[in-house]
Amino acid sequence: MASCKILVAQGGGPTAVINQSLVGVVLEARRQHQVGLVYGARHGVRGIVAEDFVDLTQETSHNLELVASTPSSALGSTRDKPDAAYCHKIFQVLQAHEISHFFYIGGNDSSDTVRIVSGEAAAAGYPLRCIHIPKTIDNDLVENDHTPGFPSAARFVAQAFAGANLDNAALPGVYLGVVMGRHAGFLTAASALGKKFPDDGPHLIYLPERVFELERFLADVKAVFDRHGRCVIAVSEGIHDAAGQPILAQLAKDLAKDLEHDAHGNVQLSGNGALADLLCEEIKTRLKISRVRGDTFGYLQRSFIGCVSDVDQREAREVGEKAVQFAFNAGRDGSVAIKRSGYYSVDYELLPLSAVAGKTRVMDDAFISDNGTDVTDAFRLYLRPLLGSGMPDAFRLRPNPVAKILNKN
Amino acid sequence: MASCKILVAQGGGPTAVINQSLVGVVLEARRQHQVGLVYGARHGVRGIVAEDFVDLTQETSHNLELVASTPSSALGSTRDKPDAAYCHKIFQVLQAHEISHFFYIGGNDSSDTVRIVSGEAAAAGYPLRCIHIPKTIDNDLVENDHTPGFPSAARFVAQAFAGANLDNAALPGVYLGVVMGRHAGFLTAASALGKKFPDDGPHLIYLPERVFELERFLADVKAVFDRHGRCVIAVSEGIHDAAGQPILAQLAKDLAKDLEHDAHGNVQLSGNGALADLLCEEIKTRLKISRVRGDTFGYLQRSFIGCVSDVDQREAREVGEKAVQFAFNAGRDGSVAIKRSGYYSVDYELLPLSAVAGKTRVMDDAFISDNGTDVTDAFRLYLRPLLGSGMPDAFRLRPNPVAKILNKN
Q: Based on the domain organization, do A68 and A132 belong to the same domain?
C-alpha cells in the first residue's frame, strides 16, 4: 500500500541547519509504510509551479546524512512570496502529481503560503496534508521558543564579537558590526554572548525593538570611549527612527545615495556595507575619533560552514521528523513549533497554521535592558543553551605591572 | 645565576595564533636556567618606550596555555612603525631595564624594528640578543614557506567562501567577497580552497599580483553568470590599476568620496565596505543583474574566535619556542623562519634580520592561473596542509529529476 507521494521544499534565506530538517522529513517519510515516493521541489515554491522536482527516494541515506550537515538549502530556495493566484498554481501542480503530503521548511512568509495552499485543497475537497516546518535565523516566528537556524547564526555572531572585542582590545578604537534582522533583534542581541570580562565589548547594542536616535548613539559611543579608550558596538541592520524609517535610508538620503528596494518596497538592508560605513563616518567626523572600523557581517553569519550549534542541528532534524509524524498521526494541517520544557529541554507541538502564518515575533521587553543598549540576564539565560557545546572561550594575561625606571611619573 | 631579563612584545595586526608564539617564548624562557625574569611589553614598541611592562614570570603556566589558544594579541599591539629615533628610545629603555634578550612577534615592519634595535645595541656595545618571530595573516614575509597566522585566516576565508557558495547556489545571483591583503594575494587566493564541485564558486579570484581592469572584470562576471546563472567572486582589497593606483581610490574618486589615509599616506583599505559596494554597483548598473550582494570580510577573517588551523597553532607555538632556543644557542640575532621540509613537515631556521626585514613577498606566478582569475594546483598543494585537520566539507543531493506532467515542454 505504498501509495503516498510526499513533497518537501525549502523557502527563504538559507541557514546552517535547514538541511537537517529536510533530511529529517525524507528519512522519516521513507520509513512510513504508506509512503511510495518522496519528492523535493527545487528552489521552493518557484520549483513547484515549474514542476522542478527531484526524486529523493533515489538518494542514499548515507549521502542524506552528509547533506544534513551541510549548510544552506540543498534543494535551493526562493524569495518568491506567493499570492492567492500563485498558491492556486502550486495546488494545481500538487494535484497533478497526486501529492498527498506537502512539507514546506521556511519562515513566516512560508507558513503563510502553506496556510493558503491548505485552504485551496480544503475548498477543492482534495485530500492534502500541509505541514509548515520552522526555519529562520531571525528567530521571529511567534509561538516558538526559538526557530531552527537561529542558534547557529547566533553562535556565529557571538563568536564574531568575542573575536572582534579581542582585536579591538589589542588595537584600540571604535569597532562597529552590523548584524542581520529587519524587525527582530535576537541575532544582534546574541552579540552579548561574546562578552566575558566586565569591560569586554560589545559595549553597546542597538536593536530594531527600540527607536534609534543618532545624537543619543553618538553620546553613548563617546561615553564608552572616554571610559575604556575603545568601544565595540553591535547594530541591527533594521534600526529605525521614531517614524519607523530605516536609519540606513535616512543617512543615505543625506548623501543622495540610491538604495535598492525589494518586491515589497522595503529598502534592501543586507548585501552591502552602507549602514556600517555611514555610522562610522558619523563617529569619525562628529566625535573626532581616528580609528573607527565597521564590518557588516552579511552572508557570513548565515552561511559560514563550520560554525554550528549541535543543539540547533538536533532540533532542526527533529522538527523535520516530527512534521512527518504529525502528518500521519495528528490528522490535521499545521505548523511544527518548538516549546521549551526545561533548562534545557524542548518538546514539539503542531499548531494551527493560522497561529503562526505571517506573524512576526520581536524581542520581549524583559530581554532588553532599561537603557535600551544592552540585554538582560533573562536573555543570556534564554540564549546560552541554544548555542550548544564547545563554545570557544577567551582568556587574558593577569596584570602584574613592572615598575618604570625612566618614566617615573 | 638566574640573571637574564627577557622582553617579549607583539606588533601589527592580531592573528588567531599570535598568542601561541608569545606563550612559546614565555614557557621556553622560563625553562632556561639563566633566565630570571620574563617581561611582556603592552602594545608593542609603544609600550616599550612607555615602559609599560608586565611581569610574565608571575603568570601561571595553566593560564598561559589558555591565553595561547585565545586569538588576538594578549599583550596588545600597535601600528607604530618606529624610525631610527624611536628605535633609539626603545634601546634606551631596554638598557635601563637591563634586558638581555628582546623578542618581537610581528610582520615585516616589526622585523625591521628588530633590525634597527639590534644595530643600535651593537653600536653601543651593549649585549642584547634580538630575535624577530614571524606573524602575519598576509603571508608576505620573504624566506618563509608561510607565516604563522596565515593558515588560520586562510581557513576562515576558505570556509567563508564554501558557505557563501552554498548560499549563492540556493538563492542565485552575484556574490562578491572582499578579502584582506594590500600587496600579497595569498589570503584572497585561499578562497579557492572553499571549492569542491566543478561548478562551485569562487568562480573568479582577483589578486593584487595582477592588474585589475574594470571592463575585463565585468566581462568575466557576465561570462560566468551567463554560464552558471550565478557568480561568486573573491576580490583582494589591494586590487589596483596598471599605475598601481588602488581600485578603491579610483572608484571612490568618481563618487567624490573621501577616503582615510594611514600614517604612510596609503589609502585605508580595511574597516569599511566601500570596495565591495562600489564593485557591486558597477555589476548591477552595467550588467543589469538584479541580485548582487557584496560582503567585506573585514576583521572577522583575522579575529573570529573558533576558526583556527591546528597546524598553525602548532607552528606558531614552535616559532616562539625556537626563538628562545636560537637566542641562547645560536650566538647571533636573527629572524625565525619556517622552511617546508616534506609534505607535510617543517623545520625552523634563524635567518639574518636583513634577509627578512622590510621586504614583501607576493604570490609566485606558478600559483596563479594564466587567465589571472584563478589559482593553480600548485597553490592548492601548497595551501591544503596548512589549513589543518577537520576542514568542513559540503555535500549535495544527486539529481534524480521527476518527469513533468503539466509543463511538458
A: yes
